[in-house]
Structures are given as structure tokens and as C-alpha cells.
Amino acid sequence: TSCISERARRFQSFDLPPNHQEPIQLVRYAVGEQYHFHHDWFPAENTKENGHASVERGGNRVSSFFAYVSVSEDIAGGGTKFPKLAAPEGDGWCGVVECDQAREEGVTFRPIEG
User: Fold this and answer.
1) Which of 11, 32, 67, 104 has the greatest number of CB atoms lying within 10 Å of its CB?
2) CA 33 centroid distance within chain
3) What is the per-residue DSSP string for 90-113?
4) Do 46 and 6 belong to one domain?
5) Is the pLDDT at 54 greater than 60, yes or no?
């Protein structure tokens, strides 16, 4: 996993030591399994004093990096959707994002092996 962690740091252009990264989370989905929508952020009023995650405890994530270890043509779905993210313009993005969904629905990044 160290090579994936290093690749994530370089890809995200972070010049931080590896101990500033969250541990890698590995997930393997069986047929029919999925990860449901959730939020990976918290509002600014959450503080360590009221027992919540906070900027003092590391803050919200600046970015996320997903690595698909194995992908096959017969997989349906498998993308990561960001419903509030503005969809990029231009057909050049269609190799990495789903271009057949309405722009107001956000962006779904396709699973791409590598």
C-alpha cells in the first residue's frame, strides 16, 4: 500500500510528510454490494470543545484519492459520485467521468484500472 500512498501524495501535489495522510482504506465489494452516499465533511461550528471533528483536529479533507486495483469490462457502476461538484465541460473528460448524466446531477468518476 505504500506505493499507492506515495502515488496519491504526488498526484494531489502535496509536499507533506506521509504521516500527514490518513491511513489507506481498502474495500472489496462482492456482487450486489455498494457504498451508500455519505458526507465526508463537517460544518464550521463543530469544534473540539463540543466533541466534534474540527479544524483543531485536522479539519475537513482537502482532497480524496481513489485507486481501483482491478476493473473489468463486465462491471456495472463502480464510479464515485460527487453530487455537488460542477461537471467539467468538453468531451475530453468522458474517459474519466460519466458524460451521459445531466450536468446538474454532479459528476461521477469512472473506475479506471491503474
Assistant:
1) 67
2) 18
3) SGGGGGTB--SS-GGG-EEEPP-B
4) yes
5) no
Neighbours of 90 (CB within 10 A): 7
Judge whether residue 87 has pLDDT over 80.
yes
Distance CA 47, CA 37 (A): 24
Closest to 22 in 3D by CA, of 49, 59, 48, 69? 59
Task: Let me know whether 82 and 103 are in one domain.
Answer: yes
pLDDT tens profile 10-27: 877 767 777 777 778 888
Q: Residue 105 and residue 84: Cα distance in Å, rounded? A: 8
Whether residue 99 sits in one domain with residue 46: no
Residues 19 and 45 in one domain: yes
Percent of the chain having pLDDT more than 90? Answer: 0
Would you say how long the chain is, in residues?
Answer: 114
Q: How far apart are CA 94 and CA 37, in angstroms?
A: 23
Residues 41, 23, single domain; the answer is yes
Q: Which domain does 1 fall in, by range? A: 1-67
Q: Which of 80, 59, 55, 64 is nearest to 12 (CA)?
A: 64
